[in-house]
Amino acid sequence: MSEPILGRVRALKQTLRDGGSIAGAWFSLTDPAAAEIMGRVGFDFLLFDAEHCPWDLAALQTAMMALNGTQTVPIVRVPWNDPVRIKQMLDLGAEGILAPMVRDVAECRALVSACRYPPLGSRGFGPRRASNYYRDIDAYVAAANEAIFVMPQIEDIATLDVLDAFLAVPGIDAVCIGPNDMSGTAGLMRQTQHPTIRGAIDRIIATAAARRLPVCLGVNTRADQQAALVQRGVRVLLVTSDLELLAGGARAALTATRAALGG
Predict the structure, then answer these.
(1) Catalytic residue among 17, 40, 52, 128
(2) CATH of the domain at 186
(3) Calpha distance 123→141 (Å, rounded)
(4) I want to staple 39 with a disulfide (CB 3.0 to 4.6 A). Which of 20, 67, 88, 226 is the partner?
């Protein structure tokens, strides 16, 4: 018996609603074999970065196909909070959307609207692959508005001025932080440990936790940090990336060989 349509993302969202945490990885290599390798590790989600990486739509669709038969949820960071690109990603089969640089309440509401069919939103209709090529169209439409995972990314320090109202927008499932771009908007480019940026991050985490809204830091965190982060409310964990694993693994292998040979 096949899994109900959008079943894995609904399970992921239920884990968060129950107070649990989820662990995933960034994915940027536009190779379906790499996506298949990562998808069969057991991550709760892969975050396909279409903002900074050279994804075209066909390559992204093929990479998401590589997650078929797994419980790994494909979430896409779109290039911008653009309803046209969000619609395309969802129709290709993305089960979650991370939108960068969502700056105010109106933009946050627009993100939710782009991920919802009318009357709850403004998503255009045409879920080709998402609906199993229209074979499960009724089931997809019935589930999509509730099931799609929606996560705005706070990357502008000015968003702190409207933080309470921003986090109260109905329909967001988690909030992501972008420490590097936030530091840039504060005139502190890449000074992510500066007290201004650390204070902003801490405030977002605390305010979201008071609403039981999960937080994602937007950057990878070490295993020895994660239990404390989860206790604070950072329950959408990014633990590695395909690039980090490839570069780090290659470096470690070469270093070990040279050390063994006395080089």
Answers:
(1) 52
(2) 3.20.20.60
(3) 11
(4) 67
